[in-house]
Structures are given as structure tokens and as C-alpha cells.
Design a protein that fits this description.
Layout lengths: L18 H8 L7 H6 L8 H9 L2 E5 L4 H6 L6 E7 L5 E3 H14 L4 E3 L5 E6 L1 H13 L16 E2 L6 H18 L5 H7 L27 E4 L13 E8 L2 E9 L18 E6 L4 H15 L10 H8 L1 H12 L19 E4 L5 E5 L5 E2 L7 H11 L3 E4 L5 E6 L4 H10 L15 E3 L17 H14 L9 E4 L13 E7 L2 E6 L10 E8 L3 H15 L6 H7 L23
Parallel strand pairs: 6-7, 7-8, 16-17, 17-18
Antiparallel strand pairs: 1-2, 2-5, 3-14, 4-5, 4-13, 8-9, 9-10, 11-12, 12-15, 14-15, 18-19, 19-20
The structure holds siroheme (SRM) and iron/sulfur cluster.
Length: 583
């Protein structure tokens, strides 16, 4: 790679940089006062500045929002605890790692595991004094939380593709290599959490060759897709690699840049945006391309306004041609032109499948990714029992589900017995709407939630299932996604039905994304009360049952019939649709 631009991030002229830039710069490569904050036994929280830095260590300060009002009345401090996000590059964990996470969830967290929309584990309800022991126990099985959050490259996702096992093995290796390459080099994590001796000579001896002292302007997300599956929702991410497979071999990757979901209600300058394909690279060029994309964003991303700091705005403002040119300058060569590819679907495919290597894989539906035991379903126990005997792996999907992967034919009966014993596959007989539903965490842990999501979507889907059943659509797959606020953690703007929390019990209803994840939906109605959502959707679902064209997807139908219109670009995403519906 050519000599790069110097790190200009810390020396911008013009308007004052966002205060987080100062926090990063003064942190001594992400150390801050964290060690002291953790040692302080008086408060269950950490200081405001350190709570920005913990994110780079995969840790978020939260409080139980169900208890907030009551505690305020009693003049008590908030019920502080931490969310811990554990990186799993490519989503593949060993049985030992699964058992370890299962145990840590019980010992140090709220007894549940959350499989996220980005193939990671999350723990909730970890008290400050339990953070270190929990992270040390993870370290024993080579799991970590470094850069799971923060202004850096996050967990790298890839398609878990059970059927194409050889291609999967290669994309997994590539995802892990990108992850390693873009992981911050600071030893702060090792010192603070794993009691490693401080770097000799202090932080001055350290370097972040890719990020510099102030890291990136904002979070950064990388994924790898293997067409025809777009299970990673490639267009929702800052950087994507689309595997181009010829004769069963990956010959290279189309490179996509500039996707993102988050927006703010009422702030037209923020909007979800689909990534664009900017070229093609060879497998051996992936790391240098990833590094160049990160560096261009490092040097040109907005460090003043964090609401405008993602790569999607850098590209929207300056254009793809400019961005590609900057990347090519750093690479010292041109990217090749993108190759043809076609996606057929986003979301996961369930049930048993056999890989070309003869091994079996079972994809299970995990409602909203929450692994816990209830009276009806002992999911956590069942998966633990499987992990005790399973010699293959556990693959977290990009849609909060789980694949028990790499089962040798002779081991399948024992796994199948446990699956049946604990009823783990019963959810697979659910209707097409539930199997394609996804909700973000929201209340009670998420500090940004405006409305319920994970705790509400299953009930709403139950009501909609009746409508689907009456319309004869029980098994039709329709992507439905809900979030408790507009940040977009369950990628709701790529749902054929998207519900975005606005206030307690109130949602904006979006319709019309493409089933293959290649088109955003649009807002159909703003501020729909929860009790009216089914009434809003019933006539549309009925019309879909009677008026759809052969093979037409629900999102396409909504667009064709004019319930919503495709949106072109940028700021008008927010406007509710007013076009008359054709009948
Ligand atoms: Fe997210 C912030 C949960 C995937 C966009 N997200 C948060 C926080 C940390 C709230 C906070 O900042 O205080 C949430 C913690 C809730 C909790 O209690 O656990 C949170 N995000 C999640 C997870 C757990 C949702 C889930 O139910 O699975 C997902 C964890 C992914 C992971 O393992 O890394 C999660 N978040 C996403 C995605 C989807 C994706 O990346 O595929 C998005 C949209 C894509 C994107 O980034 O544009 C997403 N999260 C956001 C945003 C808006 C970012 C933006 O620039 O627009 C925020 C708020 C922020 O960063 O200021 C946010
Ligand atoms: Fe929280 Fe909003 Fe993300 Fe849901 S979408 S987890 S409410 S930040």
C-alpha cells in the first residue's frame, strides 16, 4: 500500500470537534481513568467520560429502566449495571465457548444470553465489580470484548452458509482476518481487564497504526455476503465484501461502502442509506482494501457532529467516485470493475441442511435472539446440554438465530434427541411472519429506547398471525422488524414491515423493503398506536393475498400498489407517504 495521508483527525480546523474527540485523545489509547473508576466501590457506575471509553472495551453503562421512576421517587440512585458485548468474528463459537458464555450469564449477568443482529453475544445486568471476573473467564476460552462497540471496526459478520461449507470456511477465515487486522493495537484492554503489566514506557510507546490516537469519527461495520443469500444485509453496513464464486471457488469480492440504518426522529439530515458497490478486489487484496476504506473515513469523516459522522454521510456528501479515488490513492492501484451478482433473500433459512463436506447443520429460530429458560421452553438448558456433547460449532446468524453446525453424520442422532427432548425445533413450525421477525433489545436495558421492542414484537406477531392465517398466508415469509427507537438496531428500514418506536406504545409504520434487502422501506404512517397496528396492516395483508402477482413479495406489492413509493436518496426518507392507494 502507498504512503498514506497523515492522521488529520486530531488537528481539524474550523468548528470545535465533538467532545468525544477530546476524550479519545486524552485517554492514552483508551485507558482514561477506567482502572480507578472500576476500583471505586461507592458507585455502581463509571464517570461520564469513562462511560464513553468503556464502549471501546465492549461495555455499556446502563440502568434498569423498569425501576427508574420508582427509584427516583425514593430518591435512590439509578439501578446501574453494564451490558457486555462479546465479539464473535463470523459468528462461529466452539462448544467450549458456548458453555463458558452460558455459565458467565448465570454467574455474573441476568441469566440470559442475547444473540445480536451482528453475530455477537451480549450479557445484560452485569454489576461493575463483576465485569473483570466475567471478562477474565471469557479470556480463558479466547473470547474478548475488545472493539465490540466504540468508534472502531466492530464485530465482522459473515454468512454462515452451512451448505457451501468450503466457501464458508474461506469467508470465515477472511472475516477473522479482517477482524484481527482492524482490531485496535492498544494494550489497554489487557492491562485493565486481564491485569497485564502496563506497557513499558507508558502509552507513548504505543501506536495505533490504522486508527491513530482518536480512532474513527464513529462506529464502523464490516460484513461479508455470499450470494444468493443476503443474510448479512450487506447494504446496511459501512463496508461490505460480496463473494464472487466461480466453480465453487471465491475469485474475489465486490466491495460495497456507505450503508447505515440509524436516523433521528424529526432530524431530516439523518437517514438510513444503502451501501453502494464501488468495485472488485482479489481475495489477497481484502485486508488492504478494508484498511484503506477505514483510513479514508478516519481522515474525512465528520468529527464535529456525531449525528453526521458515519461513512454513509461522508460518501453521500462527496460522492462515490471521490471516495473510490481516495481509496485507490491509498492502495496505489485501481479497484477492478464490480462483477455481476444476484441476491435472492435476506434473513435465515431454517432446519437441517447438509454441507458439501457431508456434515449436518441445524438452523434454529431463536425469538429475538434471547437465550433463556421459560416455563414453556428450556432453551438455555437444551443448548447447554447440546454443547456438552457437540463436537462441531455454534454459529450465531446475522438475524439473531443459531446454527448448530458441523455435526458428523454419526453424531446427528444424539443431537437430534436433545433437540426433541427440549423442543428446540418446535418454533420452526411457526408461520412465515414469525420466522422472519426480528426485534432489537430496547426496554428495559437500552438507554435510548423510546418504546418496547423485544418484549412486544412476539405478541404483535401473534395477533398478525391470525390475520395471516385468515388470509391464507400462514407460511408466506414476510420480513417484519421492530426497534424501540430510530437507531435501527434490528435493521427495521430493511423490513417489508418496519415498526420504529416513537414513544411508549407508539410506532412509525414503514412498508415496502425488498425481500432480498436491496431496497429500503418508506414510512407509511407516523405515530401509530400499538393497539392500531393490526388494524392498519389487516387490509394490506388481505389485499396482498388477493391481488398479488405470481411470486410477488409483500414489500414489492406495497410499492406496486402505491402504499408507499420508493425513495431515492437522503433527506426525504422521513416524510410519511401521502400517495393515494390504487385499488
Ligand atoms: Fe445498535 C446503539 C443494541 C445492532 C445502530 N445498539 C445501541 C445501544 C448500545 C444503545 C446505546 O448506545 O446506549 C443498544 C444496546 C441495547 C441493549 O440493552 O443491549 C444497541 N445494536 C444493538 C443490538 C444488541 C440489537 C439486537 O437486539 O441485536 C445489536 C448489537 C450488534 C452487535 O453485536 O454489534 C445492534 N445497531 C445495530 C445495528 C444493526 C447492524 O449493525 O447490522 C444498527 C444499524 C446499522 C448501523 O449501524 O447503521 C445499529 N445502535 C445503532 C445506533 C445508530 C448508529 C448510527 O450511526 O446511526 C445506535 C446509537 C448510536 O450509536 O448513537 C445504537
Ligand atoms: Fe436501543 Fe434503539 Fe437500538 Fe433498539 S434500536 S436497541 S431501542 S438503540
Amino acid at each position: 500500500m502507498k504512503a498514506e495521508n497523515s492522521d488529520k483527525s486530531a488537528r481539524s480546523e474550523g468548528p470545535a470537534l465533538h467532545k468525544n474527540e477530546g476524550i479519545k485523545e486524552a485517554s492514552g489509547y483508551l485507558r482514561g481513568e477506567l482502572a480507578a473508576s472500576l476500583a471505586d466501590r461507592i458507585s455502581g457506575a463509571v464517570s461520564a467520560e469513562d462511560s464513553q471509553l468503556t464502549k471501546f472495551h465492549g461495555i455499556y453503562l446502563q440502568d434498569d429502566r423498569d425501576e427508574r421512576a420508582e427509584r427516583r421517587k425514593k430518591k435512590l440512585d439509578k439501578a446501574y449495571s453494564f451490558m457486555v458485548r462479546v465479539r464473535v468474528p463470523g459468528g462461529v463459537a466452539t462448544s467450549e465457548q458456548w458453555l463458558n458464555m452460558d455459565h458467565i450469564a448465570d454467574k455474573y449477568a441476568n441469566g440470559t444470553l442475547k444473540l445480536t443482529t451482528r453475530q455477537a453475544f451480549q450479557l445484560h445486568g452485569v454489576l461493575k465489580w463483576n465485569l473483570k471476573p466475567a471478562i477474565q473467564e471469557m479470556d480463558k476460552v479466547l473470547l474478548d470484548t475488545i472493539a465490540a462497540c466504540g468508534d472502531v471496526n466492530r464485530n465482522v459478520m459473515c454468512n454462515p452458509n452451512p451448505a457451501a461449507s468450503e466457501v464458508h470456511a474461506e469467508v470465515l477465515r477472511t472475516a477473522q482476518a479482517i477482524s484481527d487486522h482492524l482490531t485496535p493495537r492498544t494494550r489497554a484492554y489487557h492491562e485493565i481487564w486481564l491485569d497485564e503489566e502496563p506497557v513499558a514506557g507508558g502509552e507513548k510507546e504505543e501506536e495505533e497504526p490504522i486508527y491513530g490516537k482518536t480512532y474513527l469519527p464513529r462506529k464502523f461495520k464490516t460484513v461479508i455476503a455470499v450470494p444468493p443469500s443476503n443474510d448479512v444485509d450487506i447494504y446496511a453496513h459501512d463496508l461490505g465484501f460480496i463473494a464472487i464464486v466461480e466453480d465453487g471457488k471465491i475469485i474475489g469480492y465486490n466491495v460495497s461502502v456507505g450503508g447505515g440504518m440509524g436516523m433521528t426522529h424529526g432530524a431530516a439530515a439523518t437517514y438510513p442509506r444503502l451501501a453502494e458497490v464501488m468495485g472488485f478486489c482479489r481475495p489477497e487484496q481484502v485486508l488492504e482494501v478494508a484498511e484503506a476504506v477505514v483510513k479514508v473515513q478516519r481522515d474525512h469523516g465528520d468529527r464535529v457532529d456525531r449525528a453526521h459522522a458515519r461513512l454513509k454521510y461522508t460518501i453521500a456528501d462527496r460522492g462515490l467516485a471521490w471516495f473510490r479515488g481516495e481509496v485507490e490513492k491509498l492502495l496505489g492501484h485501481k479497484l477492478e470493475e464490480a462483477r455481476p451478482f444476484a441476491f435472492e433473500h435476506s434473513g435465515d433459512r431454517y432446519g437441517w441442511s447438509k454441507g458439501v463436506d457431508g456434515k449436518w447443520h441445524l438452523t434454529l429460530f431463536i425469538q429475538n435472539g434471547r437465550v433463556k429458560d421459560t416455563r414453556q421452553l428450556r432453551l438455555k438448558t437444551g443448548l447447554r446440554e447440546i454443547a456438552k456433547i457437540h463436537k462441531g460449532d455454534f454459529r450465531l446468524t446475522c438475524n439473531q438465530n443459531l446454527i448448530i453446525g458441523g455435526i458428523a453424520p454419526e453424531d446427528r442422532p444424539a443431537i437430534e434427541d436433545l433437540v426433541k427432548k427440549f423442543g428446540l425445533d418446535e418454533a420452526l413450525s411457526s408461520g412465515g411472519l414469525r420466522l422472519n421477525s426480528m426485534a432489537c433489545v430496547a426496554l428495559p436495558t437500552c438507554g435510548l429506547a423510546l418504546a418496547e421492542s423485544e418484549r412486544y414484537l412476539p405478541d404483535l406477531v401473534g395477533e398478525l398471525e391470525e390475520v395471516m392465517e385468515q388470509a391464507g398466508l400462514r407460511d408466506d415469509a414476510i420480513l417484519i422488524r421492530m426497534t424501540g427507537c430510530p437507531n435501527g438496531c434490528a435493521r427495521p428500514y430493511l423490513g417489508e414491515i418496519g415498526l420504529v418506536g416513537k414513544a411508549p406504545g407508539v410506532y412509525n409504520l414503514h412498508l415496502g423493503a425488498a425481500f432480498d434487502g436491496s431496497r429500503l422501506n418508506r414510512m407509511y404512517k407516523a405515530g401509530v398506536k400499538a393497539e392500531h397496528i393490526v388494524d392498519e396492516l389487516r387490509p394490506i395483508i388481505k389485499a396482498y393475498a388477493t391481488d398479488r402477482e405470481e411470486g410477488e413479495r409483500f414489500g414489492d406489492f406495497c410499492m406496486r400498489k402505491g402504499y408507499v413509493e420508493p425513495f431515492q436518496e437522503g433527506e426525504n426518507y422521513h416524510e410519511p407517504m401521502v400517495v393515494p392507494v390504487q385499488t
